């Protein structure tokens, strides 16, 4: 058998996988495309191993190693995708670009009272309390 047939098939598989990684929006389809690319590499390794008749069968050994790494990658990748889907409600890759958590209305930073306000809601600077930085501008805004 000629070496060109499996090499061309592997190149086509790799190109289809590369297209899937670049064009797909769903994270699970992206993981499947990565697996397709890894299988194309495995096909090349086995084909070149058979063609060169290596006594150590290093191509097949590398193929087994890549299969083990791919199994671990798909397990961890699916776990991450499921966790992201539970937290955000989507697995679309273009919506998950930033790592920051989405802002939730009513967080502690938004509901905290200003430092100049007392428990009864009056301004501490108006009752003779200590004036903090920027309290003069706050008074000017309150009177305006």
TrEMBL record:
Root EC class: translocase
Main location: membrane
Superkingdom as given in the UniProt entry: Bacteria
Catalytic activity: a quinone + NADH + 5 H(+)(in) = a quinol + NAD(+) + 4 H(+)(out)
Keyword tags: Cell membrane, Membrane, NAD, Quinone, Translocase, Transmembrane, Transmembrane helix, Transport
A Pfam family that the UniProt record links to this protein: Oxidored_q2
Subunit structure comment from the entry: NDH-1 is composed of 14 different subunits. Subunits NuoA, H, J, K, L, M, N constitute the membrane sector of the complex.
Function according to Swiss-Prot or TrEMBL: NDH-1 shuttles electrons from NADH, via FMN and iron-sulfur (Fe-S) centers, to quinones in the respiratory chain. The immediate electron acceptor for the enzyme in this species is believed to be a menaquinone. Couples the redox reaction to proton translocation (for every two electrons transferred, four hydrogen ions are translocated across the cytoplasmic membrane), and thus conserves the redox energy in a proton gradient.
Entry similarity comment: Belongs to the complex I subunit 4L family.
HAMAP family: NDH1_NuoK
Entry protein name: NADH-quinone oxidoreductase subunit K
Source species: Streptomyces synnematoformans
Lineage, top ranks: Bacteria, Bacillati, Actinomycetota, Actinomycetes, Kitasatosporales
């Amino acid at each position: 058998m000629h070496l060109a047939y499996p090499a061309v098939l592997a190149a086509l598989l790799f190109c289809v996988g590369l297209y899937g990684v670049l064009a797909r929006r769903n994270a699970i389809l992206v993981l499947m495309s990565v697996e397709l690319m890894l299988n194309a590499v495995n096909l090349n390794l086995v084909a070149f191993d058979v063609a060169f008749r290596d006594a150590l069968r290093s191509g097949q050994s590398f193929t087994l190693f890549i299969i083990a790494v791919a199994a671990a990658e798909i397990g961890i990748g699916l776990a991450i995708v499921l966790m992201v889907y539970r937290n955000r409600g989507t697995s679309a890759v273009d919506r998950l670009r930033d790592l920051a958590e989405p802002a939730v209305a009513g967080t502690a930073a938004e509901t905290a009272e200003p430092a100049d306000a007392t428990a009864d809601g009056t301004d501490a600077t108006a009752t003779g309390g200590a004036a903090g930085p920027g309290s003069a501008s706050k008074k000017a805004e309150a009177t305006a």
